[in-house]
Amino acid sequence: MWNTGCLQRIAGALAAPRVVALAVVPVLLLLLSVSARAQQADGLRVDVALVLAVDVSRSMSPEELEIQRQGYAAAIASPQVVQAISYGAYGRIAITFFEWAGMAHVRELIGWTVIETEADAQAVAARLLENRGASASRTSISGAILHGTELLKSVPYASDRLVIDISGDGPNNDGMMVTLARDAAVENGIAINGLPLMTTGGFYSGFSIDDLDVYYRNCVVGGPASFVIPVNDWKQFPEAVRRKLVLEIGGLTPEKVPDVVPVHVPVLPGPLVAPMIKAQFSARANAYDCLIGEKIWEQRRQRFYLDP
Asked: Domain tally for the chain?
């Protein structure tokens, strides 16, 4: 059984930026149940199967990409994350890590790997630091979600919870509509959490939006116990990632934080089984334009004659 009290203390001890927890979203597409596959997998059982999907689009500078890579490595190997893993029902998690940009750009840095000990976590962190990727054009959050969903279909471990963790600095502007990819994932019992990078700089910052956290809340995240942790300054990034991982490992949402919208997911004793949960958007969420990224891209393409 999860030691939720200890996990909450770990999460609360980390300095947290403004956090928004979300209600789950309506489902529009039906795919083969990922949760069923994960629960029927043979072999080792893990508390959570976690997909880390990291934006490397050209809107981010080389310096920002390096901060991001080092931040994830440091968070994975941090004492707080290792301790959170040890409090799980099985005391282990499975993770995979890939970089994404446009629909055609996905680069897997770490395949499915079990983290159970401090040595496991340090080994994963070292592998991340050894891999220096390159940026690519466009931003396909939908492509990242679809790829993450495919990875969760093939996870070789039985898992109680399925999570895709998306970090990015702009709205979707390539591939299918992001809400369709999100809804398909949620239909399959997957939770999608967001780390919107609301920092200044980068080469193509004109493609971003000021309310990226609101965009992520309304258009990207969803599923059981989903949440958003915005990053407004790169100095916040390492702590934001650590806090996010602790929450994801424990199946928790941020508590006692202003502007929180509760997630309508029952709190059950013991390990959670990722359920298929459906809920309705609020009127405010329905009013948000989830095609804003595509519209900005098209406007700038016509103005500057960019390649489609």
From this structure: 1
